[in-house]
Design a protein that fits this description.
The chain is mainly α. Helices cover 65% and strands 0% of the residues. The protein has one domain (11-62). It starts with 10 loop residues before the first helix and ends in a 7-residue tail after the last helix.
Length: 69
């Protein structure tokens, strides 16, 4: 990843642009996910857990009379 210094640009704004580009590219997220081995069954369980959580949130949001937080 490479970020060129613009004319009359300070280091802070250059660093901010670099971190923004790094976040949007997904390089950092991919690096962190590959720091340890995760088996296929663990990935499947996490995916199912996330889907269940999402389904419950959606159901609570659409259900009338649901307690508001």
């Amino acid at each position: 990843m490479k970020v060129e210094l613009r004319e009359n640009e300070g280091f802070d704004s250059l660093l901010k642009r670099f971190t923004k580009d790094l976040q949007s590219s997904g390089i950092l997220r991919e690096y962190r996910s590959k720091r340890r081995f995760v088996s296929k069954s663990e990935l499947r369980r996490a995916k199912m857990r996330k889907a269940e959580h999402k389904r419950r949130r959606k159901a609570a949001k659409t259900t009338p009379g649901a307690p508001a937080r």
